[in-house]
Amino acid sequence: MAQKISMATPLVEIDGDEMTRVLWQVIKEKLLTPYIDLKTVYFDLGLLHRDATNDKVTVEAAEAILAYGVGVKCATITANSARQKEYNLQHLHPSPNATIRAILDGTVFRKPIVVANIHPTVVTWKKPIVIGRHAYGDVYKAAEMAIPSAGKVELVYTTKDGKEQRILVANMDGPGVVQGMHNLDDSITSFARACFLYALEEKLDLWFATKDTISKTYDGRFKEIFQQVYETEFKARCDAAGISYFYTLIDDAVARVVKSEGGFLWACKNYDGDVMSDMVASAAGSLAMMTSVLVSPRGAFEYEAAHGTVQQHYYRYQRGEKTSTNPVALIFAWTGALKKRADLDGLPELASFAERLEKATLSTIEGGLMTGDLAKLASPAPSKVLDSWEFIDAIRATLEKM
Ligand code: NAP
Ligand code: MG
């Protein structure tokens, strides 16, 4: 075999849980390490190790991404009470993605991976819709309280020199719940900038939507900042590139998206992006056919799959079955990270290997070899459904031919 491709700076490698953790190793063994002298700084975010370190490992992984610039992350379990029992956990830590995003700040861009033999469920979609999800604040960093009985709930803001400003949330006449959330002008501004830069780079129109008719101050601020960033920093460049910026209400946006041809970047607030990216991914084909990258305003990039740990498949795998779990989004997380590393370090060989691996993956599917989730959607339907291991071997064979 030819000499392996070398790397300069290591990637921050963040391992995860269940089925995606199993496939992570197979991808490295079959598709990466035979070709690349892979350098990584490894963090084990498997649930038990997060628990054993009191979640310190999650914070260390995020800090390493800031230090090295590029990370690649496997899917991880967000612990809940069922998981606490299942894994006998000491603590219930927040979602690792939420912890990492709170440290990196930034925007998550999610783009469907398109293959010729799979058509979107939404028949009008001709081009992929990219979601730009704000990754800081709102309900993901909120304070919540259960209110046991009737009483007054207020929001209180105290300035650094001790002055108070308060506003009534509700005079509650019985038990209920309350939530306080926030965002920062700086974070919203960098969200807007990241979206305009992405739109310019990919030559896509930019859509943004909130519910500013109801949330006049909170969502209103998002709308204002986007408009201001557009007018003061990007309008001339967008005009020159023939790109438009379009603002509307979130419910109107949803209706328009479904009737559109696609081919634009849809900037979404944190929660909208969480929900809408799964909708766009499923309608475009499969959750496993979507790339996801977190772009931090501090100059760091984290690549991951948009789907979870594929829990039910993992239980089948544990019972000794070979599952047909689709590894494409995990492969593209690695290729995305390798391409970014190659770009930053000036390593054209590494970049072209990552490109080749992506092409090999797509052309394997287009050649009729695929996992079960895609087999249900492909036209023509494949004669046989491959398990994950057979599919990865098929990609390897395509890669060898290239
Ligand atoms: P999931 O892992 O995304 O899986 C949901 C369903 O989608 C699967 O049961 C499967 O459908 C299908 N699916 C997802 N990825 C697939 C793939 N690669 N190949 C084939 N089918 C795929 O979501 P979940 O079951 O709701 O969550 C499982 C765990 O993942 C949870 O503990 C959650 O906390 C975690 N999670 C992590 C992340 C992350 O780290 N980024 C994101 C979301 C969820 P079928 O069963 O019909 O085949
Ligand atoms: Mg989600």
What would you say about this model in short?
This protein has 402 residues and is an alpha/beta fold. It has 3 domains: 1-111 and 288-402, Isopropylmalate Dehydrogenase (3-Layer(aba) Sandwich), CATH 3.40.718.10; 119-138 and 182-284, no CATH class; 143-180, no CATH class.
Structure commentary:
The protein folds into three domains: 1-111 and 288-402, Isopropylmalate Dehydrogenase (3-Layer(aba) Sandwich); 119-138 and 182-284, no CATH class; 143-180, no CATH class. Helices cover 45% and strands 21% of the residues. It contains 14 helices and 16 strands. The strands form four sheets. It has a ten-stranded mixed beta sheet with strand order 4-2-5-16-15-6-7-14-12-13, sandwiched between helices. The protein binds NADP nicotinamide-adenine-dinucleotide phosphate and magnesium ion. The site of NADP nicotinamide-adenine-dinucleotide phosphate has 17 residues, from helix 10.
**Helix segment count?**
14
CATH architecture of the largest domain: 3-Layer(aba) Sandwich
Distance between the termini: 14 Å
Strand content: 15-25%
Task: Briefly note the structural class of the backbone.
Answer: alpha/beta
Write the CATH fold name of the largest domain: Isopropylmalate Dehydrogenase
Question: What's the CATH H-level superfamily name of the largest domain?
Answer: Isopropylmalate Dehydrogenase
- Major β-sheet profile: 10 strands, mixed
Given as residue ranges, the uncertain stretches (5+ residues, pLDDT < 50) are none
Q: Name the hetero compounds present.
A: NADP nicotinamide-adenine-dinucleotide phosphate, magnesium ion
Oligomer: single chain
One letter per element, helices H and strands E, the order comes to EEHEEHHEHHEEEEEEHEHEHEHEEHHHHH
* Percent in helix: 40-55%
